[in-house]
Design brief:
heterodimer, A: alpha/beta, six-stranded antiparallel β-sheet, B: mainly alpha
Chain lengths: 330, 121
């Protein structure tokens, strides 16, 4: 049991609890979203005490040095004094410059910041509304080529942020963003490696950025792109992809429609299994898996067993805050 | 006089071995259910720590840690045959990497010494 001091709260952790659990159990409004250490919404700062390494693993060195940590990943027997990070240290203001529906459920947002954000296509940012609600979205834009940050937001019926984005977020409005986060991006020096890009739903967003990055880097190795969507309509970049790869002989694109698959099949993460059938030996391949967590986890294991090294498998699972009673469409 | 870890090739030996070893373990139906997890990346990191330890290298494991980590698996029925299966995969990984027989023997001795802690005896 550890003593956690937060502002004027003196709390005790319970066995097995993370610091985030302790805060929430005491009705403290601590920020969080995915609760599995991916989105970094729960980032806090430790003023006094020793942090467990696992609570800082995903953070950049300069943040680690300043004592930043993820409260959902912090399990400790040590006493800690913690605080919320200063907003201005981590978030910058962005304004909406373009908004377009790409399909009945996917909206494309283009944001601009006062100073350019330094990122790799495929990383993600955290977007914070004025009321403090934070959600993560992956970057589909290519730095250097695009002077905006591009996000693909899928409208979720119970989605607090996505409903607001569809209905109330208008051109000229501001929002705070922080990041970039994540290691799901194209690595220079891999031009010869065969690449497998697999995305479900708006998992296509980071992949389109990575694909453009690869082509921009004159990638020679074959690139296989698979996009799984519920319906044909939801292959929301079908025409754009075909146009982009018209002159790239090494890029192969295969759309997959999950409406025709059984629910169990999709729920168990197998919607993109055909990619493994098409490419059974993944030794020395670069693998990028983005979108529904079940699909990402299933494919990660299968790609590894097919010979891809763990370090060459990059994942961007779209963990959602609310546990769903039923699996998503894709 | 160099240590086992130095002789076997240190960190790069661990990196060469971990994917091969982890794949063998996941592909073995007699033990793969003990490795079912939603976080393969974390488990892969644990395999790396384990290999570092049995290669005589730096690690954070104590006997108590091994005991505590495997206790839930012992509850699920982890027994000597499973331990031996994993040990067998460790051995075949080293053979695949052409590690000299005497070094393999040293590694297997270290692995064997963890048996009581792993099985909660």
């Amino acid at each position: 049991m550890a003593k956690i001091t937060y502002r004027d709260h003196h709390l005790q952790t319970e066995d097995g609890e993370s610091v985030l659990d302790t805060l929430l159990r005491n009705n403290i409004d601590a920020p969080y979203s995915c609760k599995v250490g991916v989105c970094q919404t729960c980032i806090m700062q430790c003023i006094r005490g020793d942090l467990p390494e696992s609570s800082q693993l995903e953070l950049k060195p300069n943040l680690r040095e300043q004592g930043y940590f993820l409260s959902c990943q912090c399990h400790t027997e040590n006493n800690l004094e913690i605080k919320l990070p200063n907003s201005d240290q981590l978030f910058v203001t962005a304004s909406l410059v373009e908004k377009e529906m790409l399909s009945p459920t996917v909206v494309r947002l283009r944001l601009q910041t006062a100073t350019p954000l330094y990122y790799h296509a495929g990383q993600f940012i955290n977007v914070k509304r004025t009321d403090g609600l934070i959600r993560s979205y992956s970057l589909a834009s290519l730095p250097g080529e695009d002077n905006f940050l591009e996000l693909h937001v899928k409208h979720m019926d119970n989605g607090d942020m996505s409903r607001w984005v569809s209905e109330s977020f208008d051109i000229g409005d501001n929002i705070e963003i922080d990041g970039p986060v994540g290691d799901c991006f194209y690595s220079s020096g891999t031009q010869d490696m065969p690449m497998l890009l697999i995305g479900s739903g708006t998992g296509l967003a980071p992949l389109i950025g990575i694909l453009r990055d690869a082509l921009h880097n004159n990638h020679i190795g074959p690139i296989h792109l698979y996009h799984a969507a519920f319906t044909e309509e939801e292959l929301y970049l079908d025409a754009e992809i075909k146009s982009l790869i018209r002159n790239a002989n090494n890029v192969h694109y295969k759309p997959l429609i999950t409406k025709y698959m059984t629910e169990n099949y999709v729920a168990s993460g197998r919607s993109c299994e055909t990619a493994l059938v098409d490419n059974p030996d993944l030794k020395n391949w670069k693998i990028y898996l983005c979108g529904a967590p079940a699909m990402v986890k299933f494919m990660q294991q299968r790609a590894f067993l097919a010979g891809a090294s763990m370090d060459n498998i990059h994942t961007d699972p779209f963990e959602s805050k609310e546990l769903r009673a039923e699996p998503r469409d894709t | 006089m160099s240590t086992l870890f130095e002789k076997i090739g240190g960190e790069s030996a661990v990196n060469a071995a971990v994917d091969i070893f982890y794949r063998k373990v996941l592909s073995d139906d007699s033990i793969s259910y003990f490795f079912e997890t939603t976080d393969m990346t974390a488990q892969h990191a644990k395999q790396k720590s384990f290999l570092s330890m049995v290669f005589g290298g730096p690690n954070d494991y104590t006997g108590a840690d091994m005991r505590k980590a495997h206790a839930p698996l012992v509850e699920k029925g982890l027994n000597e045959s499973h331990f031996n299966a994993v040990a067998g995969h460790l051995q075949s990984t080293l053979e695949e990497l052409n590690v000299p027989a005497d070094l393999i023997a040293e590694v297997m001795a270290i692995a064997g010494s963890t048996k009581d802690d792993v099985l909660g005896k």
